Amino acid sequence: MKNSFDDDGQPKRTGTLLTATSHIITAVIGSGVLSLAWALAQLGWIAGPIALMAISIITLYSSSLLTDCYRSPDPVTGRRNYTYMEAVKANLGGIKYKLCGFAQYGFFVAASIAYTITASTSLAAIKRSNCFHKIGHNHPEKCHEKSYPFIIVFAVIEIILSQIPNFHKLSWLSIVAAIMSFAYSLIGLGLAAGKIAGGGNDVITTLTGVRVGVEVATNAQKIFRVFQAIGNIASAYFYSTVLIEIQDTLKSSPPENRVMKKASTIGVLITTVFYMLCGTIGYAAFGNNAPGNFLTGFGVYEPFWLIDIGNACIVLHLVGAYQVFCQPLFAYVEQWCSNSWPQNKLISKADADGVSTMFKLVWRTLFVIITSLVSMIFPFFNDMMGLIGAATFWPMGVYFPVEMYLVQSKTQRFSTKWIWLKLLSWACCLVSIVAGIGSIQGLISSLTKYEPFS
């Protein structure tokens, strides 16, 4: 029937403000929230909240620019761009299109690794808290848990869920995952507030964060940690890589860009409130010795059952977030292979997407297995989150949205708006550079003293 299809001939999209907001919250409030207490411990009470607010505002502004690039050349009546890469190709073309693909899909791979590490850490924390509850807190060595068996458990779950046909079928999973993100954030806040109320003389917070000669040995270490903390905050807000894909699930009326701007505003505002609470209350609870994952830092405290529920919610959330980021990658690789080898029966077959079900099963399973193996070998949560933020915050979150907006809006060179947007882009480029330096140094430091599978 004619009414069953959109203007591009595709089946009618059914996404709404609710589903788009759920996708955004699922993508944004992920493992990044868990490192915010640690990030504030590096930056202190002044720079920490300022960095959180600044990156929040930048994220919301750049997202607003990006929503107008879903259709080209007109943001309401133009031709649809189904992916971020297609939007870049339509507006910028050439080498920038290829660089965008490298950055976007590289981010998806890195995010899947980071989420696997985080989920396995939370599963291990559940077993550890149960162990402490059973035998007491006097023998911590008896409750040490290796993370790699839990990586295998998470991988099995993702192998099954990876067979979901495409991004449009993820709405139910995103809504569940978004609810889980609220649940574990609230539990973490409650536990942190309880820890603060319980008092203790061992918690020290400062205006400038960790102190040289006390929590860190040298000025260089302090600087590198500050850089890494900025990367962690940037990665915590990041969802630009899937914004166009989320927008492509929306109904065409009202206009997709209008709905997406509302969804982005709601999602980022909710995220900022949670992040500010989790970061500041988490820092107040743990002080300058805040753990990289503030919820697993409660592993030796009671009530153990509440800690277990919080960590279980993290796992359930990351199960959904993994798919939100990986489904666009799955679709791209499958379509590319189908176009490259159209006569290959193993790859191309007449199903809904023109891709063999067997090929999907094999390729998606191999992807989950490979990313899980990498997670076992390099389980460095903070370093990984900082590196992801550094590598993608500027190009995907600021540079491409700004450049596409300037082209689509035909903004005159050297006008006030042009100069402002260019200055914003280069300032964010500097943020990415310093964050990358800090994360690489942290990764090198972690590698020098780590034994795989230990």
Automatic annotation (TrEMBL):
The chain crosses the membrane at residues 20-39, 46-66, 102-126, 147-164, 170-192, 266-285, 305-325, 361-381, 387-407, 419-444. The keyword Membrane applies. GO terms for cellular component: membrane. It comes from the Eukaryota. InterPro entries: AA_transpt_TM. Its main location: membrane. Pfam families: Aa_trans (PF01490). Keywords: Amino-acid transport, Membrane, Transmembrane, Transmembrane helix, Transport. Residues 14-444 form the Amino acid transporter transmembrane domain. GO terms for biological process: amino acid transport. It is found in: Membrane. The keyword Glycoprotein does not apply. PANTHER family: OS05G0424000 PROTEIN-RELATED. This is Amino acid transporter transmembrane domain-containing protein. It comes from Aquilegia coerulea (Rocky mountain columbine).
